[in-house]
Amino acid sequence: MRGIYEARDRHGNMLYRLFCVLDRKATEHGLDAPALVMLSGGEKPVREEMDARTYAEVRRQRDEYINSSPRQILP
Question: Of 7, 31, 33, 73, which has the fewest beta carbons less than 10 angstroms from its beta carbon?
Fold first, then answer.
């Protein structure tokens, strides 16, 4: 999960994660400034592992974003 950051929150017995990438090279790929890019989210019960498919999807989304030029973002 190199280059992917997580924002974490807990509500009761559930953990929520937001997976992001910090794109410092965004200006080289059509953006006006570096960008914090949300890739995906996930949830899991406390003391359980996140589903491996979630991590695989996040890595796929990171790779798709990093390999795009110009960067694909929503307005």
Answer: 33
Half-sphere exposure of 64 (CA within 13 A, CB side): 12
Has residue 67 got a pLDDT over 70? Answer: yes
Q: How many independent structural domains does the chain possess?
A: 1
Question: What's the burial of 50, exposed, middle or buried (CB within 10 Å: 0-12/13-18/19+)?
Answer: middle
In a domain, 29, yes or no: yes
Cα 25 from Cα 12, distance rounded (Å)? 38
Domain that holds residue 25: 4-66
Residue type, 43: E
**Is the separation of the CB atoms in 39 and 21 below 8 Å?**
yes
Q: For 31, which DSSP code?
A: -
Question: Tens digit of pLDDT for each residue in 3-56?
Answer: 999 999 999 999 999 999 999 999 999 999 999 999 999 999 999 999 999 999
